Amino acid sequence: MKIFSIMLVVTLLASCSAEPEPIAYGKDSCHTCKMTLVDNRFGAEIVTKKGKVYKFDDMTCMINFYNSGQEKEEDMAFRLAVDFNIPGQLVNAQEAFYSKSPEIKSPMGGQVAAFSTKEQFQNRNEEWHGILLTWGELLTQYK
Description:
By secondary structure, the chain is of the alpha+beta class.
């Protein structure tokens, strides 16, 4: 009985691990707009401390969900954005650099692309002439 109890605890802990998942483009759907995620230069993900994963096709969908209060901020373990320069690669959304420009053709028309470094942002932004946004500024842009 003791072994069964230990195995049950280990199984429960393993099933509640809060880890990001890769986005399965062409299969996963956006939690907010329900569209299939297809453009691997865009996307975002929120993972709760209980391990629930929410996927989004555009930063506007993620920010709308984030600001909705459906999940409390303190219950979120990860806030991730796809690095535009590394398709499909999730990076910490709170540390990313964002370009907002009409030249950015994101899935839901949010006109925002994420970059893991300021240098990557600057290199791409020479073409777009967008504005630099931090995570906090991005949150207030879509309130």
